[in-house]
Amino acid sequence: MIIARALVIPFLLAMASGAFAQDTPLPLPEKTDIPAEFSITLCPNDSAARDMLDLYHNVLPAPQNHILDTTRFFEGLAATGCVQNEGRPEGVITIDTVLARRDFELATAVETHIAFRGRGEDGTPVIALVDESWNNRLPRTPLERFLRDFTDSGVLVDMDSDPLRPLIYVCATPAKAKGVIAQMADPETASEAAQETAFRMALKLNACQPGYGSYTITEMHGERGVSCGFECWSNWTALNGTDESGQTIGLLFDASQI
Q1: Which single residue of 21, 31, 178, 249 has CA 20 to 30 Å from 4?
Q2: How would you classify residue 168: left for phi > 0, otherwise alpha for psi between -120 and 50, otherwise beta?
């Protein structure tokens, strides 16, 4: 009896001190915000979310192993009561707690999905699944979108553009590149000829020349278009960058040619 009591007391003390507490929470993703336009799977409770991830997310066998098994996924929706985006709170969703995480080895990459608890912008509780890998890669700012769409890991390269219509202009300073954008005519009110004249004059005043190298982009500024006739236009963006020698310069990039 004395031995039993001696064992019980340390057990109770251990519980009180947290020695038998739940496992350490799973780490949060690199990005805990989910943009409003990115798809999620909403679930009615934690158990349904875990089942959806553990039982109904499967990679198709090779050579179809580029995506998850969509047939199995939709079977999971029916079995768990989870839904795709239906009833999703408007705006950005914030991930607060990761309930479960799984890696899926696809043909060309490893993709990670999570079940999580979170909240909408209005505080509405959310239990859902999301593709963590893709969500981490989604751009959040105009600069991030530019880097994704027009650069190779942040490096902008002239890709043999037409010499008569350069893809890139280089200006001595970022201020001069921004000056070109500021001095361009408004395409909503100016004629095509006036737009082209204003652009050429702005390039001349700011001493910007065609660029044919590779440039690391660090900041993004304003943009403005130039209409040059039927189905003809350019869309110039002012950028900060560094050239191959490491010098800080200003750039103008025509996104319409990509």
Answers
A1: 21
A2: beta
28-71 pLDDT per residue, tens: 999 999 999 999 999 999 999 999 999 999 998 888 888 899 99
DSSP type of residue 29 = P
Task: Supply the DSSP symbol for 212.
Answer: -
Please, which pLDDT band fits residue 248 given cuts at 50, 70 and 90? Answer: very high
- Interatomic CA distance for residues 44 and 117, integer angstroms: 11
DSSP 55-117: HH--BPPTTSTTSB-HHHHHHHHHHH--EESTTPPSS-EEEEEEEEEEEEE-SS-EEEEEEEE
Q: CA-to-CA distance for 157 and 94, rounded, in angstroms?
A: 36
> Which one-letter amino acid corresponds to residue 175?
A
Please name the residues in contact with 50: beta carbons below 8 A apart, sequence gap of 6 or more. 99, 100, 115
Give CA–CA dist 178/241, Å, rounded. Answer: 13
Q: Do residues 239 and 252 make contact, with C-beta atoms less than 8 angstroms apart?
A: yes
Tell me the pLDDT tens digit for each residue of 104-149. Answer: 999 888 999 999 999 999 999 999 999 999 999 999 999 999 999 9
Backbone angles phi, psi at 111, to 5 degrees: -110, 135
